[in-house]
Amino acid sequence: MDRLSRGGGRPIPGIGPLPHHLLHGRLRLAVPEHGDGFGPSWPMMSPVPMGSPSVVLITIGDELLSGERVDSNGPWMARFFQARGFAVREILTVGDDEEAIVEALARALVRCRLVVTTGGLGPTSDDRTREAVSRLLVLPLREDEAVREGLERRYRERGLLALPPRARRMAQLPEGAEVLVNGRGAAPGLALKAGNRRLVLLPGVPGEMQGLMESEVDSRLDQWFPQRSRSLRTVLIQTTGIAESVLAERLEFALAEGGAPAGVTVAYRPSLRGVELRLSAVGPDAEETLAQALLAVAPVLEPYRYDVVSGDLAELVLDRLAARQWKVAVAESCTGGLVAGRLTAVPGSSRVFLGGIVAYHDEVKSSLLGVPEEWIRTHGAVSDQVVRAMARGAAKRLSAQVAVAVSGVAGPGGGTPTKPVGLVWFGLHSPEGEWSWSERFSGGRDEVRERSAQYALQRLADAANPDPREG
């Protein structure tokens, strides 16, 4: 007998008769004969209010489990659904194994009213999502004529006279599935109903998934869940130059002492570039609650906060330089072009960015940037005097009003008792003067370099600010 056997349990409330359950003690989709719970294999859960339907997201692919690829679909979908009034119950990741997909779907359909999967809809033999849904819901796979014809047109446009047999698999759909037209790829998305549950199957390619979510799924959510609450309000804030632990302590004190109303949650997402904050509130007064909370924490955030669409500090640097009509150049040693790379990654950076010099060797610092060799011998390449001269030389050589310089010991070797690994000096030249700073960064070589590039951008942003903050 197949490991998925039919019968053996009462219908699950709200879903109806799901005849499959897994044997051998792995998982049972059956309500026990006594009681209303889901049995010992299911945790007790408080009911989700009807106004806030829950969703489980399942990302499928062996490459996600092996670490070959980082899952970006789950976080993207979580933000998408939270912004539309859904409670994201959990994000599951399973491999390209039909049994594992069936188990994940069974678990999810019991727990929530909406399940969305990504992956496993392609033409190859390891794409098993359609087959898993067919087995779980007892829906035979049938070829959809319209989907097949669309695939044939797509392949003809690419020079193939006949649809390859493997590609034809993508037209095999569980009976009753609604086709979601994929405008960015071959495999269609699918929508199915199981009792009062909804199941959405999407391709795993991020661009295709996002396109289908926005063009096909979004409008259907209003039809499927018309009474859901839309009272969730969220604000994202970017900060730099302050550690997560310090920021959390100050924010929590400000919220407690500043008269902020209850019901505001704060999430911290630290990275090498800074800490992203997510302030959220739920309820009919969510917008006002958030506004009061932001007023309470404003004095804490002001020295470290920056607001740009992309979330990249480099965008703010370029905007401020453009506002002052200043051109910028960079001189980099240990960062090896990371600062220039961050600036040029922003579209339109040529309006203010002139260029950079990677002066990694001491001879290049002298020959291209004009750093006196005696200063390097006396003070060392990682020093106050040298970074000031590097910044001054970059500004002069590239005819820039502003220049920033970076020189440090990124490691893992090269450190000394007086100049340990992680020590980095920064120099800045502008029409308003010259400055230098030193920082000691923790972490390995990559972390030191990334943190150094972020700090250099922070100093550029301060220098170009008409009302620069202290620090």
Describe this structure in words.
- With 471 residues, this protein is α/β, with parallel strands linked by helices.
- It has 3 domains: 221 residues, Molybdenum Cofactor Biosythetic Enzyme, Chain A (3-Layer(aba) Sandwich); 74 residues, Alpha-Beta Plaits, CATH 3.30.70.2860; 152 residues, Alpha-Beta Complex (Maf protein).
- It is built from 15 helices and 19 strands.
- It has a 6-stranded mixed beta sheet, sandwiched between helices. Strands 16-15-17-18-19 form a 5-stranded mixed beta sheet, sandwiched between helices.
- Helix 3 packs across helix 4.
- The protein starts with a strand and ends in a 7-residue tail after the last helix.
Largest β sheet strand count, sense and barrel closure: 6 strands, mixed
CATH superfamily of the largest domain: MoaB/Mog-like domain
Q: Round the mean pLDDT to the nearest integer and report it.
A: 87
User: Widest sheet: strand order?
Assistant: 4-3-5-10-9-8
Computed structural class: alpha/beta
Number of strands: 19
Distance between the termini: 72 Å
Structural features:
single chain; 471 residues; alpha/beta; Molybdenum Cofactor Biosythetic Enzyme, Chain A; Alpha-Beta Plaits; Maf protein; six-stranded mixed sheet; five-stranded mixed sheet; 15 helices; 19 strands; disordered N terminus
